[in-house]
Amino acid sequence: MKNKRIVHVVGTGTIGEPLIGLLAIFRKELGIEEVTFHKRTPLLTDRSKVLALQKRGARLAVDQEAWKKFASMGMAPSYEALEAIDRAAVVIDCTPAGNDNKESLYNRYGQNAHGLFGRILSQTVVPVQSVAVKDKREVVGFSFTPQDGNSLLSSIAAAEWFLYPENYNERLQCIEGHIFQEI
Question: In this structure, which topology does domain 6-118+148-178 adopt according to CATH?
Answer without folding.
Answer: Rossmann fold (3.40.50)
